[in-house]
Amino acid sequence: MNQHIPQQTDIVAAHQRIKPYIVKTPVLRSDFLDELCGAELFFKCENLQKIGAFKARGGLNAALSLPKEKLSKGICTHSSGNHAQAIALAAKLLNTKAYIVMPKNAPEIKINGVKELGAELIFCEPNLEARENGVKEIIEKYGAEFIHPFDNYDVIAGQATASKELMEEQVDLDCIFAPVGGGGLLSGTGLSAKYFGKKVQVYAGEPEGAADAILSFKSKKIEKAPYINTIADGLLTNLSDKTLEIILDTVIDIFTVSDEEILAALKLIYDRLKIIIEPSCAVPFAALLKNKAAFQNKKIGIILSGGNVDLAKLKF
Amino acid sequence: MNQHIPQQTDIVAAHQRIKPYIVKTPVLRSDFLDELCGAELFFKCENLQKIGAFKARGGLNAALSLPKEKLSKGICTHSSGNHAQAIALAAKLLNTKAYIVMPKNAPEIKINGVKELGAELIFCEPNLEARENGVKEIIEKYGAEFIHPFDNYDVIAGQATASKELMEEQVDLDCIFAPVGGGGLLSGTGLSAKYFGKKVQVYAGEPEGAADAILSFKSKKIEKAPYINTIADGLLTNLSDKTLEIILDTVIDIFTVSDEEILAALKLIYDRLKIIIEPSCAVPFAALLKNKAAFQNKKIGIILSGGNVDLAKLKF
Q: What's the whole-number mean pLDDT along residues B92-99?
C-alpha cells in the first residue's frame, strides 16, 4: 500500500493496473448546455463506468495493489454505496471475499448492487462510529484488509485516472469541476490536473446540506458540516487528513449549491445528455451553472461521478 | 436526390458528408445484461446523438445532398418528433428554413426540441392524411423541399451510417437488432450489414400495437397494422415501398413485443446502462430478450434509436 501522496508515476501505474477491468468512459457534449453556460463543456461520464460510478477505479487500484497473501483473506470497507460496489466488484474479479458494512438507510439500488456482486453485507446505524466499529469487527474476525473509501493513497490514485483520461482525450481544458464528499475524487482530480494538465484549474461543487469541505478548505483543518440535509447521498462524509492536504495544494475553490440547484442541474443533464446520474453527480454542474459568469468562454471538464439512483424516488 | 437503392459507395459518401455534424456515438456494454441474455451485447447509443436520435443522420444527409438553389427555399417534413428535430437541425446548420408539420399529440419534449432549433411548426390532426396535406400546403406556398422521414434513399443512406459505425468499432458481430416503424433505420441497417458486415444478420423489433411491418414482411406488400395502441410513439407509421423492398432483401426476421415487454426492457436499460431511452428505443432489446434462446453466445449489436421522452410521464 502506497504511504505517500501519489506521484505522477503512481497515477500512471494505477491506470495501467486497472485498465483491463474498467470502461474508458465516453465524454459527452451538448450544444444547448454550452450555450446556456457560455462555455465549452466536456462531460466525463463515470456514471457509465463499471458499477455505475468512478469508485470502480479507486477500489480496483487499491485491491490490485495488495500483496497476494493479504488479498486472499478478503477485503472490507464501509460505504453508503458506490465504494461498497467497487470493493465487491474488485473481490469478484480477483477471486477473493468482500465484507461490506453499509448504513441501513443506503439506497436500495446500491444495496442490491453489492448483493448481486456476491459480497457479504453487514448493516449498521447510519453514522461514522457504527460504520467504523462494524469494520473493526470484520478485521478481527477474518483478517480482511480494510480499504477506506477515500483516506487511502491507492484509492486516490485510482480516482485520479478519470480526469487523466479526460485530459488525454481533451487536451486543451482550462478547468475541471468535480464533486466533493470525502475528497477521494477531488484530490485525485487535483493531482491529475497538476501532473497531466496544461495549467488546468480544479474546482469543486459541494451540497449546502453537507458543507464540511468548504469549511475545511478555509480553515485548513478537518471540519464537520454545520448540518446534514441533502439529496446528494453520496457526498455526506467529511474530508480526511490525506484528502484535505492534497485538496489544499491542488484545488482553486469550492462552491456550495442547494438541493434545488442540484435538482435543476440533474434535470438538465437528463434532458440534454440523455444519461442517468444520481443527485450527487449533478453537484459540480450545479456549481458551474451558479457561477457561470466567472467561466465564460472556458473549456471545462465536468466529472459526472455516478448513476446509481432509484428512479422511482426521483420527482421530475 | 438519390433515385436508386443506396449502394455501398452511397453510404460511405453519406457518412463522409454528415461526419462533421454528428456525434460518433459510444457503444456501451453491461456484464449483467450479457449474463441475462447469454450473449455479448453491444449497444450503439443513438440516444446520445445530436437531437437525441439517429434521425439526425438521415435528415442531415438528405439536406446536404440537395442542390444549393433547392436548399435555399427551405426544407419541410411531417413527423411525430425525431425526424422533425433532425430537419430543424439540418436547416439551422445549413442556414435555411425548416417547416415542420407535426401531429398535435406529439410528445412535448419533441415539440420543444423543434421550436428551440428555430423551425416553423404547423400542427395537424394525428393521421397520415392530415400530415401529407399539411406538407402539400407548405410546398405550394414556399417551394420548400420535402424530406420524407423514411421513404427517401438519402435518408436511408444516412440512417445506415449508425450500424456502419457500430460494425467498424465491433468487427465480429453475428447480428444486429434494430427497431422498425417506417423502416428507414431498419432498411439502412440491412444495407450496411450487407455491404460492411461479415455475415451480419439483421433482425427487427416491432410493437404488437403497431404491427404492420411483420405483416408486410410476410405478404411482401404494404399492410396496415391491425390496430394502433402502443407506448412506442416513434414506431407508429407503416413501411413504404422503398423501405419494404430493402427490408425484404436484407432482414432475417421481425419479432413483435408487447408494451409490457417494452417497458421491462426499457427499465433494464435505464438501470444497467444508466442512459435515457424513449420507449420505441427499447423495442429491439425487448425483442432479443423475448427470443434470447435463439441467440445464445452470439455477438449482438443493438441500435438504441433515441432518448426523447417526457420523463415525468414514465412510470418506473
A: 96
**pLDDT of A211-259, one tens digit each?**
999 999 999 999 999 999 999 988 999 999 999 999 999 999 999 999 9
Location of C-alpha cell 505517500: A4
CA nearest B309 in A: which residue? A271
Of the three residues B128, B146, B164, the one that is the final residue of a domain is B146
Distance (Å) from the alpha carbon of A114 to chain B's nearest alpha carbon? 13
Burial of B12 (C-beta count, 10 Å sphere; 0-12/13-18/19+):
middle
Same domain for A111 and A161: no
Q: Give catalytic status of residue A55 as yes or no.
A: yes
| 3-class DSSP assignment, residue B206 | strand
**pLDDT tens-digit series, residues A97-141:** 999 999 888 888 888 889 999 999 999 998 889 999 999 999 999
* Burial status of residue B105 (CB atoms within 10 A of its CB: 0-12, 13-18, 19 or more): exposed
pLDDT at residue B135 above 70?
yes
Closest among B70, B53, B57, B72 to B13, alpha carbons compared:
B57
| Cα–Cα distance list, B205 to A30, A262, B187, B241, B265 (Å) | 29, 37, 13, 19, 12
Domain-located, residue B18 = yes
Q: How many CB atoms lie within 10 A of CB B118?
A: 12
Q: Does A52 have pLDDT greater than 80?
A: yes
pLDDT in tens, B146-192: 999 999 999 999 999 999 999 999 999 999 999 999 999 999 999 99
- Quick one: average pLDDT of B41-66? 97
Beta pairing, strands B120-124 & B201-207 = unpaired
Compare all CA atoms of chain A with the CA of B313 and give the residue at the minimum distance: A316
Q: How many CB atoms lie within 10 A of CB A140?
A: 9
Domain boundary among B146, B167, B201: B146
Look up the domain containing A25 and give its range.
8-53+154-313
If one counts every other C-beta atom within 10 angstroms of the C-beta of residue A308, the result is 27
Query: In this structure, are A165 and A116 located in the same domain?
Result: no
A299-304 vs B27-28, strand pairing mode: unpaired
- What is the pLDDT at residue B238? 94
| Substitution target from B89, B274, B277 for chain A, most A beta carbons within 10 A | B274
- Report yes or no: B107 and B81 within 8 Å, Cβ to Cβ: yes
Does A2 reside within a domain?
no
Give the best residue of A117, A272, A274 to mutate against chain B (max B CB count within 10 A): A274
Domain count, chain A: 2
**Predicted confidence (pLDDT) per residue in A154-175, tens digit:** 999 999 999 999 999 999 999 9
Pair B41, B166: CB distance under 8 Å: no
Active-site residue numbers of B? Answer: 55, 80
Describe the crossing of helices A8-18 and A184-196 by its angle, rounded to 10 degrees: 110
SS3 category, B146: strand
Measured between CA atoms, how close is A277 to chain B, in angstroms?
Answer: 7
Residue A304 pairs in a beta bridge with A45
